[in-house]
């Protein structure tokens, strides 16, 4: 016997229309022009940080007994990194201003990355001046780090966004001062022998265990007026152009606010 539906045709249509509208809004939220977007605002979901120790085949960049800056150097100068070390974490050194971004000494291509971060428990700013930092994949593509707990800003600039390109699917942020996690799968761009782009970069991100980027296609560098892919480029916070067609370092941004990182490891894919 056929079971009667609990919903009327009108209710089914209304739900279908709502889902379609929601998906359309999410699709329209992205921009290929590195412009600020203010709506639709991702809904807040409750989540907990995923605290995952490094697997046996991981490259440990910080944590797991290696709580020093030996794997990092200052962007541009190649001098030793000078972030602050405290309680098994490393923290942006505000005394250095906004010129203290750091990069890995090693270069990587396709990776699985785990990284844990927290913002200042004392709220000392708002919008983009509150717990701002960033994780630059391939030295060019920023996954935003921000205190996005009750802190409205343009949605493709909040935590979990691909900066100025994609807002997160939802806002999975924890309150300021609490540890949060990103689990990332990154596919680096590919260029042919002539330096022409053959395949763009893609990124999948879980923020505190919640999917916020689902193999999003990155349109190009996130810190330039227009996103672009160049086999020879000037990476974020660099002064000179270099070969960007192969493996590139991972970069952590100093935006002048108190942001801490710990338990950073990756697996090369």
Description:
The protein has one helix spanning 9-28, and strands at residues 59-62, 72-74, 84-86, 89-91, 102-104, 111-119, 133-137, 141-145, 180-187, 190-191, 197-199, 202-207, 210-217, 232-233, 242-243, 251-252, 259-268. By secondary structure, the chain is mainly β. Helix content is 7%, strand content 29%. It has one domain: Exo-inulinase, domain 1 (Jelly Rolls, Sandwich), CATH 2.60.120. The longest helix is centred in the N-terminal third of the chain and has 20 residues, at 9-28.
Indicate the overall shape: globular
Highest-level CATH class? Mainly Beta
- Please, what is the average pLDDT? 88
Low-pLDDT segments, ≥5 res: 1-28
Helix count equals: 1
Q: What's the end-to-end separation, in Å?
A: 51 Å
Structural class: mainly beta
CATH homologous superfamily heading = Exo-inulinase, domain 1
- Please report which band the strand proportion falls in: under 5%, 5-15%, 15-25%, 25-35%, 35-45% or over 45%: 25-35%
What is the domain tally? 1
Order of helices and strands: HEEEEEEEEEEEEEEEEE
Main beta sheet: 8 strands, antiparallel
CATH architecture label: Sandwich
Percent range of helical residues: under 10%
Rg, rounded, reads 20 Å
CATH topology: Jelly Rolls
Q: Give the number of DSSP strands.
A: 17
């Amino acid at each position: 016997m056929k079971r009667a539906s609990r919903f009327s045709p009108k209710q089914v249509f209304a739900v279908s229309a709502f889902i379609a509208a929601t998906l359309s809004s999410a699709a329209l939220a992205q921009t290929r022009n590195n412009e600020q977007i203010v709506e639709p605002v991702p809904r807040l979901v409750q989540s907990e940080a995923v605290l995952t120790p490094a697997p046996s085949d991981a490259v440990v960049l910080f944590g797991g007994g290696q709580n020093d800056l030996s794997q990092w150097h200052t962007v541009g100068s190649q001098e030793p990194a000078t972030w602050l070390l405290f309680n098994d974490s490393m923290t942006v050194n505000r005394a250095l201003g906004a010129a203290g971004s750091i990069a890995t000494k090693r270069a990587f291509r396709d990776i699985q990355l785990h990284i844990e971060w927290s913002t200042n428990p004392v709220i000392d700013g708002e919008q983009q001046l509150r717990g701002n930092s960033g994780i630059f994949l391939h030295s060019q593509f920023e996954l935003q780090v921000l205190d996005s707990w009750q802190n409205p800003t343009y949605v493709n600039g909040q935590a979990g966004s691909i900066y100025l390109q994609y807002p997160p699917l939802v806002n999975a942020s924890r309150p300021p001062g609490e540890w949060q996690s990103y689990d990332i799968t990154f596919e680096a761009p590919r260029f042919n022998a002539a330096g022409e782009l053959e395949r763009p970069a893609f990124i999948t991100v879980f923020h505190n265990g919640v999917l916020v980027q689902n193999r999003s296609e990155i349109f190009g560098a996130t810190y330039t007026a227009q996103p672009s892919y160049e086999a020879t480029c000037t990476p974020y916070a660099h002064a000179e152009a270099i070969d960007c067609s192969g493996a590139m370092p991972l970069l952590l941004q100093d935006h002048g606010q108190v942001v801490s990182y710990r338990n950073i490891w990756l697996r090369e894919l």
